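ESCALATION

Customer reports they have been waiting on this structure for their group meeting. Please prioritize. Original submission:
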Amino acid sequence: MTKKYLVLVCILISSAFAKAQSSNIDTTIIKRKSYKATRVTTEPEIDGKPFEDFWANIPAGGNFRMIEPTSGLPERETHKTEFKVAYDDDALYVAGYMYDSNPSQIARQFSQRDEVFAQADLFGFFINTYNNQINQTRFYATSANSLGDSVAENGRDDFSFNVVFRSEATIDENGWYVEMRIPYRTLRFNEAPVQDWSFQVYRQIRHLNEEYSYNYIDRTRGSSSQYDALLTGIKNINPPLRLNLYPFAQGSYTTFDGTTTSNISAGMDLKYGINEAFTLDATLIPDFGQVAFDQVRLNLGPFEQTFGENRAFFTEGTDLFNKGGLFFSRRIGQSPTGSGRIELFADEDIIDNPDASKLLNAVKVTGRNRNGLGIGFLNAITERTEATVENSLSGERRNVLTEPLTNYNVFVLDQQYGSNSSVSFVNASTLRDGSFTDANVTALVVDHNDRDLTYNYGAELKMSNRFTPDGTVTGYNTELDWRKTSGSWRPRLSHDFVSEDWNPNDLGRNFRTNFQQFGGEIEYNQFVPTGIFNSYSVELGASHRRSADPDFHINSGARINARFRTRERNAFGVDANVNTRNLDRFESRIDGLNVRYAASQSFGGFISTDYRKKFAVDVRANYFYLFSDPEKGYSYNIAPRYRFSDKFLLVYRFNWNKNDQRISYVARTNDRTTSILSRRDTHSVENQLSGTYNFDNKQALSLSFRNFWSRARFSRDFEELQDDGTTTDSDFELAENSNPDANFNVWNLDLSYRWRFAPGSEATLLYRNSIFNFDNQGSIEFNDSLNDLFMEPVRHNVSLRISYFLDVNDAKSWFRSA
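Update from on-call: job pushed to the front of the queue and completed.
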């Protein structure tokens, strides 16, 4: 059955790929403006005042069209927008003129780099050096003189991308203005006599809640990157040497439980343009001591707890590596896989057990050639990690290997074709030194759009191989998806198949296996303002999940979601879900045994008020229950925010959750053939506070605080899981000193001062403290748990990190002038 299924998937992939007719989008669908850039021999002064003689003879582009709220309307006479583009041998120069008949209303909240969606007006210059209607490099400036940059694929911003460019903005009695200098080293383009580029210019008027673009964007069809204008006139330029160095130094001081430690480290990140299309990134002697803390929670489920990536090297320019979903970067430098399975002999204790494998170095190569072929290569090595065990009587010590020297590798080929479409090959491998498990995962991914920008077809075929000491284990995963991408009514159909042995977790992340799922939905979008609404959407969906081998029904469900956005920028929504009984094959912790949960229903809703006002709030509440079972749950979240001034914003978030009477795993019998369950009550409270005071667009003082508490109390009326998923009373008794109840409390506080003292260069002074407590008080109240938490030792850490940007082209000019 599996082989026939895979053959069918291959046929569908080949069929979708064969539908590509042309490398250009149908021009009857998208009408493209054209603007000719002007070659210059001098540079303008980048001061946000584009009125000097330099700009006088450069033609202006204008006649913008509205994107939001009503797509296609001409710009207001009171809010005209113009731009100018010039170039020389080294850079592009962009001027933006955002006229406003009442400039006192221009929003101008301060923010730091890449925080461009604050409450300020926004200007964007988006350039596509491939002219493929897919990829854009985006440069932003706000009316408060903040800047940002991103790479975008199909209109989706990735702000982990960071390059060094100049931008300045000013405001006067007629509006606000921007000047940008975009060096060619920030772009990737082919060496050619005449460049074939496209671009878009974007404006957001915050107080009017309106967005405009130079080339008309029909937001009811396709993605915004498909609507670029043509940028002509750029010729006889050469890609520069792209070699940027980012040396850094860091010092830290830590106190914890009477012990103090200090550390000084230095290293360097490097970016090198291998050729006009491809870039090498490397981190040498990496140090991630100032990354944000993880959002740790109490984990009582069958799966590991994972966190998002905070290390810049693994977030910047990694869009290619996300193809196929095989790469989860937190596997690199993760907790050693053997740290929790150390075998101890009599009188032995663990005295040192590193909680992470040290990253020795990492490199990545990314880029796309003139034929639309994107190539991504990433390689990282973590060092051998050992725990230290000591005999308390003899004092003898021994080292236990918890993770060998390990090499992680990802390779991607992504060929773009036709109307905003691509086919990708992805391979991820993990190689461990010695007699340990190695792994390799491969994927073929197709994302096909028809020429009319009406339908999207997606297909993924994946295979995992784990090479264990006992042999090779092979698994499969396939995904098929069809959806309509134009018009108000948008249906979608999908099918997923995951074999029992599918396991990409050596370098990826996946927890549920051995199932196939059928899904369908239909969504209605109201894009044009009507009544009090700017827009709204209603979605109705259903899914049906079955076990793959053996075949039986796991669960089915239906849902409805509605989202409404008012003209005053308030939003609200409701959702409801109903599900049949569910067979959970993971809660039992025994292969082949399912826990049967009764049919359920849930309701929820949210409100989000206008962020343009000084005070705004987000609120969400949810409730669910089982039809023939006492389990039920409640949760609510509230997040008020207050903008004291254009420089100071404070946001508080409170989350409350309660889940009662859930059938949950407690233990397995000694022969490991029977799963013991009981009813579990859980309660959690989370408080978060974040705030930033911006001295200007280069200096900021930031606070990030989180306290998370959760308790779990298990009933002592134990039950044995039966083959049909039901339970019977059990005389099981907990072993002495065994208690499944839990009281979990964690406190984290970061206070940092950041100063962007030169383009691409930054100094960060960080104070951090953290407290953690875990015990078995399942009936404890929040205040008592907090008091116990403060009895624990506090970890204090102060660190200073200074990084500097060095462009080798600038260094060469220094030597020439010396």
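Sent to customer with the following note: Confidence is low (pLDDT under 50) at residues 1-29.
Escalation resolved.
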